Amino acid sequence: MQRKPVKLISPPPPIETKRLLLRALEPEDIEDYFALYSNVKVTAGHGMTPWKDPEQALHLMDWYAQAAIDNRGCRWAITERGPNRLIGSLGYHAIEEEHYRGEIGYDLLPEYWGRGIGSEAVVAVVRFGFEEIGFHRIEAIVDPDNQASAGLLRKVGFTEEGYLRERYFDNGRFVDDWMFSILRPEFEIQHPKE
Ligand SMILES: CC(C)(COP(=O)(O)OP(=O)(O)OC[C@H]1O[C@@H](n2cnc3c(N)ncnc32)[C@H](O)[C@@H]1OP(=O)(O)O)[C@@H](O)C(=O)NCCC(=O)NCCS
Fold it and tell me: Is the pTM here over 0.85, yes or no?
């Protein structure tokens, strides 16, 4: 079967939702991006060490800019419509072009949690992933303790596939990866175009 190849757009184009504007990361975001990943509540969800140096924000932004060109990954800033301030981020990495799949990642400053913002942004970026990038399957890998992330994925319509045992080494211990995925036909049924 011939399929259109998976193709990222560099820089990722803006996506509007009811309350949000998802847009490419910009140099002006450095301070807010650093604030996001130096917050231990946010980094705990990702299983990463909190940032200590704003240079790390610059480094990751450069990585995503190049990754979008190389078809390896992309990231949007989450902003509210109106204020242009970065309040979170989301995007794709671990893209396997030949298998038409990618992994989604997302985060939000804690003061914005619990208002449906995360799921609103993820629905929009999953739609973009299927319709514009050309994925067939989108994966999400979650820490088994991260109930907020699992709840978000269930709400969006991802299927829980199980635990990949001790697949991740974090702070001197092996932890399971909790695998979720959604396929394009499933998403189209659950989130028909308006
Ligand atoms: C994961 C995260 C983005 C969720 O964002 P959010 O905007 O609070 O999520 P939503 O409000 O859209 O919640 C969606 C659903 O998730 C569930 N949920 C959210 N927070 C929850 C919590 N603390 N415990 C259990 N379930 C929760 C609920 O079912 C909710 O739906 P409902 O409000 O209709 O009941 C946010 O907690 C975060 O940034 N965490 C740190 C980073 C992180 O863990 N990233 C994911 C790594 S895999």
Answer: yes
